[in-house]
Each structure stands twice: as structure tokens, then as C-alpha cells.
Amino acid sequence: SAATPAAALPATTSGNAGPAAMPRLVADASPRYPLPALNRKIEGSVEVSFTILPDGRVGAPRLVSSEPAGVFDAAALAAVARLRFEASGQSHAARRTLNFRLPSR
Q1: What are phi and psi of 90, to 5 degrees?
Q2: Does domain 3-7+27-100 have CATH number 3.40.50.300?
Q3: pLDDT tops 70 at residue 104
Q4: Domain segments of the chain: what residues?
Q5: Stated pTM of the model
Q6: 20 — phi, psi (to 5°)?
Q7: Average pLDDT, integer, range 74-100
């Protein structure tokens, strides 16, 4: 299916020190297009915020926004939970927008 994740983005930080470099994504996870949305030809997007844990796993995924509401939320959260990043020894706040687009014919 044509669900496409956008790159993980660092959360905005304030101060002069600047954020630590974001860990490199080592295992991407494409979301599964929900069958009801596919059958009804619905497209949309979901923005998820999460924490990249010191060991590279994802923790505390949270919905920021979704359009249409509720249609792709579970698929997006499940995909973000499967992401893996390079271990950095630090936690990093991140966001990712997952776009759900129907395959072109």
C-alpha cells in the first residue's frame, strides 16, 4: 500500500546550546493501510510525536493530529512503535508525519 512516512524531525528546542544530533534511523517501518480506508478510498495523514530512547527504541508515541480523525491513528502509532534508531545514550524528542495515499492506477 502507499502509506509513506515522512522523516523524523527533532522537536523545537530553545536556548543557545542547540539540540544534540538526532540519532540515525536504522529500521524504518511502513504503516499498514487500514482496509476500511482502502475500500472507501480515503487518504489522510497522521502526525505523531515520540521519544527516541537512549537505546534507539521509540517510547511514548502520541498523536499530535490526524486527518481524517481516527481513520489512520492506530496504523500510524503501530508503525512509529516499530521504528529503530541508532543508540545514542540520550533521549531525543521527535515528530513524524505519516501520509496515507492510495496507489496510483
Answers
A1: -135, 160
A2: no
A3: yes
A4: 3-7+27-100
A5: 0.80
A6: -65, 155
A7: 96
